[in-house]
Amino acid sequence: MNKIKDFYENNYNENERMIRNPLEFLRCKEIISRYLSQDPMEIADIGGATGIFSYWLAQMNHIVHLLDYTPLHIEQAKENGKNLNLSLASYVCGDARKVPYHDNQFDLVLEMGPLYHLQDKNDRMRCLLEAKRILKSDGVVVCEVISKYVNLFEGFQWNLVDNKRFVEILDENLSTGNHSPDDTQYFTTAHFHTPNDIINELEDAGFANISIIPVEGFANILNITEYFENESKKELLLKYIRKTENIPELFGVSGHFMAVGKKHSK
Q1: Do residues 190 and 119 touch, judged by C-beta distance below 8 A?
Q2: How far apart (Å, rounded) are the C-alpha atoms in residues 138 and 125?
Q3: Given CA atoms 233, 234, 235, 241 in this order, what sign does their dihedral have?
Q4: Each residue's pLDDT tens digit, 188-215
Q5: 2-147+193-263 falls under which CATH superfamily?
């Protein structure tokens, strides 16, 4: 966890990640919106970094609590709130495996980062069980995870496979799902899921009505810049991402996918 914290505080600008990845940002908002109500909801944004989704939700009058493991992210989130003239219900620098919220408190819990930074399944299960604990009956958890095959596509797309160390990391990705970059310039310590992996973890945590939704879908293997520079091309791309999002054979192509589960009502 110290390596992850160091990565985000000294080697990576998380505050601009969604600006650099407009398709991911657009699709994440689109998917999350399917689980929002018109009435204000109480929402926990666990591992919510600098608040990109928290403030988007707050602008719709939802009551949002932000938690992140990295102190810099919490500082940046507060500064972002000042710039937007918005404030969240709370800001906590904390651990997704043990959150400081009440049982049955939230209508919706977002897990948009923690599950892909916890390599040990027991840690991921603690994270999901905490999400279930703080959800109200019939509340929903929405998780974003990274595809197990993301480095396979990016490695060949960007010629990273020319580097022997990257190939060793790729082999570990495909074998175990874990990503251990050590002191390389690649993405920090992580765990990459298959769709079945995250479905099984949500089932083991006791969630029901589980669904998988690709974020970028087949567009993950494209250079999308030209599509986002032209509005008609962008809308055509989005049309076919949506049209193909329920085809299981394409799930693993997406760089990220969302897993959604409901807490059983008692």
Answers
A1: yes
A2: 19
A3: positive
A4: 889 999 999 999 999 999 999 999 999 9
A5: Vaccinia Virus protein VP39 (3.40.50.150)
